[in-house]
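Hi R.,

Here are the chain sequences for the assembly we discussed:
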Amino acid sequence: MSEQREMKEASPGYRTVTIFVAGIAVIALVALVTVGVLQNKPLPQKYKYGIVMDAGSSHTALYIYQWPAEKDNNTGRVTQTDSCRVDGPGISSYASNPRGAGESLGDCMLKARQAVPSSRHGETPLYLGATAGMRLLNIENASASDAVFQAVEAALHSSPFSFRGARILSGQEEGAFGWVTVNYLDDRLTQGQETTGALDLGGASTQISFVSARFDGTESPHNLMTFRLYGNDYNLYTHSYLCYGKDQALRKMLALQTASGPTSLSDPCFHPGYIRTRDYSELYASPCVARSKPQASPRNFTLKGTGDFDSCRTAVKKIFDFSKCNFSRCSFNGVFQPELQGSFGAFSAYYFVLDFLNLTDTSAPMETIKDKLREYCATPWADMQRQHPSTKVKYLAEYCFSGTYILTLLTEGYNFTADTFKEITIIRKIKGSDAGWTLGYMLNLTNMIPAEAPDAPPAAPRRLRVHHGAHGPAAGGPSPLHHLHPQQDSVLQPAQDRMS
Ligand SMILES: O=P(O)(O)OP(=O)(O)OP(=O)(O)OC[C@H]1O[C@@H](n2cnc3c(O)ncnc32)[C@H](O)[C@@H]1O
Ligand SMILES: [Ca+2]
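And here is the predicted structure of the full complex:
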């Protein structure tokens, strides 16, 4: 110590050097701060972001995902950080006011600008995918659906994000991406573990997707999606039933009950004491029921609830056609479905409805579930309103129908038995991220799921890759990111499309 002090004191140049070094350090620091301030450069961000808008039939939702900036290609690393529910109905409801569809997204876009650090805005991919509501509008009135898309695209182009296109997802994509999401969040893909099937119930369509050892696509090619993920091959069975989302299914049931154009209808799927005037032209204003509109009918009919679960089941069952099957086995409406296999995650309206009804425990005996629904449906409407003053009246009025529909769809439609029903888990979120197709869709379009396991020698480019036939895109083709129309670039395609 003292020797040191002696040396410092002894060395005449020591003070000069110290002052010199300190001076340089101060100048460097000032320069650094000045440059930083002048360029307004924030500190480097730890995360990257991606945004997907889910334009569903009943509403639009925006999801923001993040992942560590230094490593894009690892599983389980992409998580949902934020979400935003667009006020008002789904974009397909803006057919007569397309501009309104674009404007409706404003608040959620603002929220996204605040949630994603501004230094990342320009590089953050933004996708919009529309599902069954737009599929139906496209069938009904293609120019109206084009106008809605134009308005929505204009709104999203004006955002600071990297807008990569708005399009309608095919039913197969909707089902398959929901399956990818669930299994990605559960970490089942990297481990090569047994996967979970996915059940999605929307307002206008519903999907079932699961890996089946007995299904290679021979019987029904358009139900097959094949992928190679983290070095494992999957044959996924998937089917989307248009018009079997819970809103359209209710329309179908009401249409069957009003085929003769009555002025009043006693309906077992609504609570006793429930009474409402329904407009014929409004009820039949959907391609799901348009063709069965009665030739002659009054303007409205009076819908009166009788609250009878067993009769409701009978009425609901009539919207399924079990009469024909050209395959070895079918679900309903002549659709091929292999034997159910493994566990399932059921989300969206399965969750909303069964959670409200306190019926998410699928291990309860089937009879108990039926008894609860029987009692629930029989509860007078006035009591329901008194007990649930803050529940949206439309939802409250329809839970008896919705619960009955879900039970019928799962057991009679998809053939879940008292045993296999227990394999269904009713979920809303997995590790903080919503279950749904959006995350899988983004992972695919941003190539964030590698075809080979990360520690395996990269024989092929690390991207989510399907086995394409001779006409499929070459492996390692251009990244989907460089195109504005992801429908041409999605590397996940149903087998039928690949073979045609
Ligand atoms: O997939 P598609 O068919 O396009 O429709 P969507 O994406 O808009 O459908 P959601 O899963 O958002 O919702 C499914 C249905 O559940 C309804 N719903 C949403 N929240 C609900 C709640 O809390 N209680 C009851 N029903 C609800 C909603 O109105 C739809 O009819
Ligand atoms: Ca949906």
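Residues 14-39 form the longest helix (26 residues). The first strand starts at residue 47 and ends at 55.

Let me know if anything looks off.

Best,
T.
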